[in-house]
Amino acid sequence: MPDLANSIWAEIENSVINAFDRNPPAVDCWGVSIDRHHVAEYCALHRTRFQHVARVATALLPPPGRVLEAGAAYGILLLALRASGYRVAGADMAASIASYGRPLIAAGVPPRVWDLHQDDWSAGDELYDIVLASEVLEHLQISLHRAVRRLATALAPNGWLVVTTPNLYRLESVVRIARDRNIAEPFADCAALREGVVVDARHHPREPTLTELKEAFQAAGLTQLRASYFDSFPHSARDRLLGRWLPRLRDTCLVAGRKPSGE
To answer: Is the pTM above the cut of 0.70?
Structure first.
């Protein structure tokens, strides 16, 4: 199936950005003000990733089909897949829906609450042919194995789970290590408290490796694994060439796996 035209992607991005014109800025769970300017920067920064994931999804299972995105955020990827002919649904944590969910609600795709820290997909709810979790797992504070198992509970038999995360071994991280710089996200000056208990409030408490992701998919019983690296952000010609020679240095990990038909 051919890619969506750039004009359609631009139309989707504009609709997402414009959804933040009609209300005061929202504030997300990290205290970031979510306004038109912030969303426009986000769209531009992550455009390549969304387009790559959309191509992977359509190659695995062309439309029509049922797609659920966990951690749907602004819904750019979901709206693109809907324009491609899929029937789409979104899910996110309640706090994320309150801050990021306006575009999907305006488009008639209201996200449902799903907290991967605590819950499997609800028994008896609709199952999906494709479940996406793009740049989600690095935000969680549970094991990769548990997170992947929970995502797989929303899959129909023969359905595909597609996950992307930042690559721990990306070129930027390797360069930082070579310069004796820490690649782990720093803590804030003041501890984050929840009901008097210190919690880890970093954006990416733990970024995985491609091998760890593959192991988690296998432990969840997913088969026909497809694993690769890709670049989500613009790079110099030198760095692009280096990425072709050493794909492990690319920005992002992608793993896809299929739920067996007998489950």
So the answer is: yes
